[in-house]
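Worked Example 4.2. Consider the chain below.
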Amino acid sequence: MTDPYKVLGISPSATDDQVKAAYRELARKYHPDVHAGSDLAYLAAEKMKEVNEAYDTIMSQRRNGGGRSYSGSQYPDIRRMVQQERYYEAEELLNGIPQDRRDAEWYFLRGSVYYGRGWLDEAARNFRQAANMNPSNPEYRAALNRMMYQQSGGMHSGGQPYHTTQTGSCSACDICQGLICADCCCEMCGGNLIPCCGCR
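Applying the procedure from the previous section yields the following structure tokens:
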């Protein structure tokens, strides 16, 4: 069968309400009563059958957890991994999804992975993309609002201020602190990493 989303003329990231609205519009257009007695009656009946099958397929997939819905997820396994803080596994699965199938949910979950790992700039960028692709989704909008609040000086759920550095980065203070610790260790072993005027 043809892609049911293409038949209805909508994106796989469409909400359930959008699926129903697209179906109703096509049903009005191709309903047998509209074309009764015309030369197009047979074609309209075939098209109506295709529209019905597409709608039934999409709604069945969504009821069984196999498709995107307003409150559900196209990626239930990845969402579960994020909730369990299995960020590397979730990211690996997300990276395996082809570029042309990366919808608003994909960007939201990727933002959630980055948020969990402390990469807040990347998280904000992905949440923004998700909210731009599906502005009617309250979950995406709430995630983006949380990031904007943190960027303006608020705290995130762990009570830590917003930082823009990724894991593995360090500030000048971190470097200085590390050198002082290394110098102390060297002096204990008879060395001198940072000579001062009294040690020459």
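Residues 4-63 form a domain with the Helix Hairpins fold (CATH 1.10.287.110). The chain has three domains: 4-63, 76-151, 171-200. Compare this with Example 4.1 before moving on.
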